[in-house]
């Protein structure tokens, strides 16, 4: 018995040693990579997987979607016509000293004679205008004309610097959901492209001057400060609008941008280039919008339309035979000339208030004829009015 106990005690250290050896081997095997990496030197560059030449028997296929191809083709076609516009204006610092201030925007070449279309607010009050072309060359530009109400302006560079002219599309044919591509210089980053869709049409926005611009294109293509004046394009690379404003609480893009449709912009650009100003159509009347209470007080059988108060002598409306008020009536402590015609429609479109009449007249040009439907007494008449330029 004693001999068996002594034999067991002699065997125990050997078992413990064997157990510890097996445990050490397991730990070493688990951490073998870290152990060898500690003694390994830096590998040669050519042994790295990404530096090895591709296998000759394996063909690489670069997948480019149709949408990507369209976007890339539009950029290659149009970006040479897009320019960066830098302006210098004069302002006052805190000590009322006159100092120069720098501004930036975008524009695009619309004619081989060097005419460039942009936003009015980009070049407003500019003492110096510098255009940077796609090639990187900077050229001085002159202001041809601008119209703050439409927020459009035309500047000009020497024709010898023009390589590419932007092609106009038809903004009247736009539909919500179409692809929209914007190219401009947001925050001074030249020739930046963003994509989105036409989110809505015929939006109205109010400018910093307090005027309202109607028929605007709404897009979710990213538009940021510096994009103003750049082109909004369709999938054919045609200009469908001029990026004008963003709706943002932070000052940056939040997916709501606005562009002036190219069709009215084309007319404004033509007027600015050929006349130096925009000839606005003029009807030559003053009036008040009717509403049910006012119509009842005045004994007018209609509660919608415009009561003509005065007709400018010799103006378009006067030449067409429109009549203003001829007797003074007090309504709610306000003196109003009564007895004039009531304008009910313009070219078949119902007119309910003065703002609506003004917006509809914006679609016409001086020299065009419009047809007014009026109520005179109990008779419904139609008069053709030749619009003239606003004095």
Describe the model:
The chain is an alpha+beta fold and 391 residues long. Among the domains are: 171-258, Trypsin-like serine proteases (Thrombin, subunit H, Beta Barrel); 281-389, PDZ domain (Pdz3 Domain, Roll). Helices cover 23% and strands 36% of the residues. The strands form 5 sheets. It has a 6-stranded antiparallel barrel with strand order 1-2-3-6-5-4. A 6-stranded antiparallel barrel has the order 7-8-9-12-11-10. The protein is elongated and about 125 Å long. The mean pLDDT is 80.
Topology:
Blueprint: H1 2-30, H2 32-39, H3 66-78, E1 82-92, E2 98-109, E3 115-118, H4 120-123, E4 128-132, E5 138-147, E6 152-156, E7 179-184, E8 192-206, E9 212-219, E10 231-233, E11 239-246, E12 257-261, H5 262-275, E13 281-282, E14 285-289, H6 292-298, E15 306-311, H7 316-320, E16 327-331, E17 334-338, E18 342-346, E19 349-350, H8 354-361, E20 369-376, E21 379-386, E22 388-389
Antiparallel strand pairs: 1-2, 1-4, 2-3, 3-6, 4-5, 5-6, 7-8, 7-10, 8-9, 9-12, 10-11, 11-12, 13-22, 14-15, 15-18, 16-17, 18-19, 18-20, 20-21
Short descriptors:
single chain; about 400 residues; six-stranded antiparallel β-barrel; Pdz3 Domain; elongated; alpha+beta
